[in-house]
Amino acid sequence: MNINYDADYIVVGAGSAGCTVASRLSEDSGARVMLLEAGPKDTNPMIHIPAGGRSLLRHPVINWNYGTVPEEGSGGRSIYWPRGKVLGGSSSINGMVYVRGNAADFDGWAQMGCRGWSYEDVLPHFMKSETFHGEGDDTYRGRSGPLQVQSYRTILPMTHKFVEAAQQAGFPLNADYNGARQDGVAYAQMTHKGRFRGSTAATYLAAAKGRSNLRIEVGAVATKLLFDGKKCTGVEVQKNGQTRTLTAAREVILSGGSVNSPQLLQLSGIGPAAHLQSLGIPVVHESPGVGQNLSDHYITRIQHRVKGVVSMNQLARFPRYVPHVFRWLVMGDGVLTFSAITATVFTRSREGLDAPDLQFLFSPGSYTQTSGVLENEPGMSLNVCPARPDSRGSIMIESPNPLAPPAIRPNYLSAESDVQVMLSGMRQARKIMSMDALAEINAGETQPVDSIETVQEMRCIAQANGTTIYHPVGTCKMGEDPLAVTDPRLRVRGVEGLRVIDASIMPTVTTGNTNAPSIMVGEKGAAMVREDAAV
After folding, report:
1. pLDDT tens, 336-393?
2. What's the CATH superfamily of 7-534?
3. What is the rounded CA–CA span in Å between residue 58 and residue 281?
């Protein structure tokens, strides 16, 4: 029987991983690839101006604008969760900070049963993804990939002073935290494309758009996966008020991220059977881990007022930003080329650890307590982040309506160890902020101000003031244990013709920002698809 399939591969979600997957699969001219994105094209100019990302955090069209269920760990507050809903996904609205993670992260995955995901295994895919503009060791850094990665070049003296202060506090200067070692203080590395943001849409997808075998559909919301028995055959989508059925000859690949991928699996009958049945959803395959194992980076922020120096707070307001607009247009540099984070520190909460478990992220600006909006007065801030948290949460649908958002329960600070790590981080961060290098500009701490000497005091501050830095992973984790949703080749267990390739497959969150590892997952996942197709 002849069947006219819409594509060989249907990739659901054009974010950090999805654009990578679609670009790499379409390199095979014999493979027809369809890429579906729920949001619009990336035509909003603020996407492409790096500093414009702050204006997109609550955008009504290109952002999913999720919120968590109020929980004890966040003091009964709902925490805002922005996720990109546009070509490029969250790489089109994020802070552009490029952190691969620590080698121990990936070696840990391999020890957990994820064969082929050790640091030695994933390093070639990191290198393939990037062109690094810096003096890094070519043993670790790529020089010909789509992502253009460069270190922050500051025109704000405050960042230099922070880097000097961190060294005075005992943290060694690290020229490349994505190289041989991660520990120490460093200027942030970022994904730029000249003067513009280097999203995966502007890099990977831009390189592939001219290929006749790649079809990109925006405004296409995937509402259900289609099955013939246990074989996934396609996707049901809503677009322009119409419901359509799209079929795949080889595979459907979910790249919706840690929220949308488990949501679509559950809507389609793959997940905890009792929960799906309670919502009237027929069970295609019982997979109790779908939506479980949610991990995210939850931070507390130290803020200081500053004096005698220009901060982002002043530069973001008229008329002070006007000269910088012209500088960006004419010279392609200046404050519009960077986002909020300009330097970072990786360190350990205690002796005896084999890898850093803390990250500090410095910003030459200060923000309202939990909203992320710049304050009126000039300031600087340092985010304290337990980088390898033990707390785990869940993302579960609460309705069979595919347009209803799922319930996001991160379960922040449910593990006592996370609070202990945060307390150590608070002490170390305050030490940095007290150093002589910052004394001339430091006008005093404005948040949290309180003395924090015990775990309980740290918990109270974190519950009241803590927030996410938008790094959710793990809700379709790979592995061999009973809660593993995918196998190490990212195939969904229990069915055929279906994979998940995005941050949701990570068994644990990586040490640092998660965009670079998500793109690596896209690279490695696409390579696996092509390898399996050739067998």
Report:
1. 888 889 999 999 999 999 999 999 999 999 998 656 788 989 999 999 999 999 999 9
2. FAD/NAD(P)-binding domain (3.50.50.60)
3. 32
Tokens of 9: 């591969």
Q: How many CB atoms neighbour CB 451 within 10 A?
A: 7
- Mapped onto helix, strand or coil, the DSSP state of residue 269 is coil
pLDDT of residue 333: 80
Instruction: Label residue 523 exposed, middle or buried (CB < 10 Å: 0-12, 13-18, 19+).
Output: buried
Q: Which of 145-154, 166-175, 195-204, 296-305 has the lowest mean pLDDT?
A: 145-154
Active site residue 471: yes
Percent of the chain with pLDDT over 90: 88
Q: Are 133 and 192 in contact (CB under 8 A)?
A: no
Question: Cα(first)–Cα(last) distance of the chain, in Å?
Answer: 24
316-342: burial string, b at 16+ Cβ within 10 Å, e else: beeeebeebeebbeeeeebbbbbbbbb
Residue carrying structure tokens 């205690």: 350
Residue type at 107 in one-letter notation: D
The DSSP bridge pattern shows strands 214-218 and 221-228 to be unpaired
Q: Are 302 and 447 within 8 A, CB to CB?
A: yes
Q: From CA 506, how far away is CA 485, in angstroms rounded?
A: 11
